[in-house]
Recover the amino acids of this structure.
């Protein structure tokens, strides 16, 4: 259910949405472009972890998203502050980590005038983010945040960037808080599971490559039990070494950089002639 609020600043509305979305910790480097948000955070249950460098702050948020499966949240100011966070955004994009990056921007009437540290948000982050938007109307903050958190978490998770013009955050508005949008979980239909069983029965040298994000402890236990029941060799993808205990009888090693010799003979690569030449030999679980 939504509820009406008295007049609030844009910064207060934004922080109230973070609370509605279950955010308990944010990371960032304070900047003058989003002081209204910092003021609202001071009196909120959301903890602000103050960092010395935006790259470190964004990587903390990225790690938060990896560990919890919920979007990590980072705040930076414009220009070099936002640019410093780009490398972590690139990591979140490649590793399918849910992340929401808020960037303080120049006032709206300064846009396009080469104002101090003005930044083309879409041009800078568009190639590394699932969604890049600028909130020009404080009354639409609940809408923008609900969409940002849903996009960051749905499908293949990834980073979302929201620009916050400095003067927008000090506007006073009356607006209804948005209910968080539900995020659908992926699933396989019984017919697809039957087809998978048929392919595995026909395969001569099957190999499971285990990777991706959003793995819960029960899901990891389930995939291990499934692989062991079928006696399927399992290789883990780059930076996914924790998805299968190395003491499992079906663990054959890690792929990616520094791949193990045993996995090298089974996994893809120019140094493994004919490896994975038959599509029926490869089962990717992500």
């Amino acid at each position: 259910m939504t509820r009406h609020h008295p007049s609030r600043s844009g910064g207060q509305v934004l922080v109230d949405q973070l609370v509605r979305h279950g955010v308990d910790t944010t990371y960032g480097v304070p900047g003058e472009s989003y002081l209204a948000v910092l003021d609202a955070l001071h009196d909120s249950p959301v903890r602000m972890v103050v960092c010395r460098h935006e790259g470190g702050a964004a990587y903390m948020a990225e790690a938060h998203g990896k560990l919890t499966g919920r979007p990590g949240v980072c705040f930076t100011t414009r220009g070099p502050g936002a640019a410093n966070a780009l490398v972590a955004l690139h990591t979140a994009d490649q590793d399918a980590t849910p992340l929401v990056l808020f960037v303080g921007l120049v006032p709206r009437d300064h846009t396009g005038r080469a104002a101090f540290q003005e930044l083309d948000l879409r041009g800078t982050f568009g190639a590394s983010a699932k969604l890049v938007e600028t909130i020009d109307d404080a009354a639409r903050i609940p809408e923008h945040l609900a969409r940002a958190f849903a996009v960051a978490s749905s499908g293949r998770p990834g980073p979302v960037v929201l620009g916050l013009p400095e003067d927008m955050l000090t506007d006073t508005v009356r607006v209804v808080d948005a209910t968080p949008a539900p995020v659908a979980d992926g699933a396989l239909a019984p017919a697809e599971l039957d087809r998978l069983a048929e392919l595995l029965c026909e395969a001569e040298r099957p190999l499971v490559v285990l990777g991706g994000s959003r793995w819960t402890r029960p899901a990891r236990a389930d995939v291990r039990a499934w692989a062991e029941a079928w006696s399927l060799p399992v290789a883990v993808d780059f930076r996914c070494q924790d998805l299968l205990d190395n003491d499992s009888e079906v663990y054959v090693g890690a792929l990616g950089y520094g791949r193990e010799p045993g996995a090298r003979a089974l996994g893809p690569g120019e140094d493994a002639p004919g490896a994975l030449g038959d599509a029926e030999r490869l089962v990717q679980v992500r």
Remarks:
- The mean pLDDT is 87.
- The chain has two domains: 8-173, 190-285.
- The chain is about 35% helix and 15% strand.
- The domain at 8-173 is CATH 3.40.50.970 (Rossmann fold).
